[in-house]
Specification:
Elements: E1 10-18, E2 23-32, E3 37-41, H1 48-56, E4 63-68, E5 71-72, E6 83-86, H2 98-104, H3 117-127, H4 143-155, E7 161-165, H5 173-190, E8 193-198, H6 201-207, E9 210-215, E10 218-223, H7 225-230, H8 235-240, E11 245-255, E12 260-265, E13 268-273, E14 285-290, E15 296-297, E16 302-313, E17 318-324, E18 327-332, E19 340-345, E20 351-355
Parallel strand pairs: 3-8, 3-9, 6-7, 7-8
Antiparallel strand pairs: 1-2, 1-4, 4-5, 9-10, 11-12, 11-14, 12-13, 14-20, 15-19, 16-17, 16-19, 17-18
Helix pairs in contact: 2-3, 2-4, 3-4
Bound molecules: adenosine-5'-triphosphate (ATP).
Amino acid sequence: MTTVGSEPAVEVEGISKRYATTTAVADISVTVERGEFFTLVGPSGCGKTTTLRLLGGFESPSEGTVRLDGEDVTGVPPEDRDIGVVFQSYALFPHMTVGENVAYGLQFTDPPGGVSVDERVSELLSLVDLDGMRERDPTALSGGQQQRVAIARALAPGPKVLLLDEPMSALDARLRERLRLQIQRIQEELGVTTVYVTHDQEEALAISDRVAVMHDGGLEQVGTPRDIYHRPATRFVSEFIGDNNVFSGTVQESDSPSGTLQVDVGPTTVALDTTRPDEFSPGDDVVFCVRPEQLSVEEGMNRLLTTVTGTEFLGWTTRHHLDWRGQELLLRSEHELDGEVTVGFDPDDAHLVEVF
Ligand code: ATP
């Protein structure tokens, strides 16, 4: 027998979704813990929305199981799943006031905590910082405010899981950043398990407890934002999450006791640290990456002679584009750089991604 309350909030096991000519989701298994802010991120068409729709019951899987709080809900329709959903478009009813839109979320359920509908609507409008907007026409609100009404409506019945599908895609950059902080605060305040979909990797890192990077219908890596950024598990993740310099090389020598590999990259040999030196043998092809902020000018044990091809002043930093033997490298530095520049990195600045 399952003990209510001890199971993960969401468990997806071996789930796939095939359409006539496409496999949108291919054999995904993942667990979301109670109270976690969990984000699915990946490029357009990788299967994020389909995965979320499978969690919500808006699609039925070709294979696999979905469990919420330990209960198999694979065949259960969305209205019986105890979930709140917010889609890309605001989907508010224009003929209803803001307050009526939020109350609509309670048409099939009593408000949690024994409060009246009226009190619940006030609670939620306050939670999403829209006190005083109750009688307003939703079409007279900004995009960010409308999306907060949609969040309040989804949260009104006190769902176990909140599903958010690119809720900020229609907003401009500044509004997105503000709403992202508000969503984070609301989620923390309520502790509601949240599954969030975005194609924006920066948003995913900023908002989540854990991130799942999707590619071609599958999961490439699941981890904390720091794990995903500092220890990408695959080349795809290293290139998709943040700026990166990705190198292909061949192991020349592995010094197991010290954990340092000598790797040939073109005519240059570089030293790289690894925690798993025994896995490498001379002749192995490897991929490693060095973040732009970890490349330095005229410093570091490993040196590469490059040519500056472009400079972007971004305010908080300056990003330089460099050419190294036909490969573009990125470097962040406040120095003015021009012409030939030697850049370097230490063995522990590099992260090994793949062995073949
Ligand atoms: P985006 O960020 O562009 O919304 P996504 O990562 O959310 O993309 P999905 O919408 O899940 O991706 O789509 C994954 C794949 O499945 C795509 O190739 C898409 O064309 C296909 N697909 C999605 N829904 C259907 C459908 N109803 N019928 C056929 N193919 C579909």
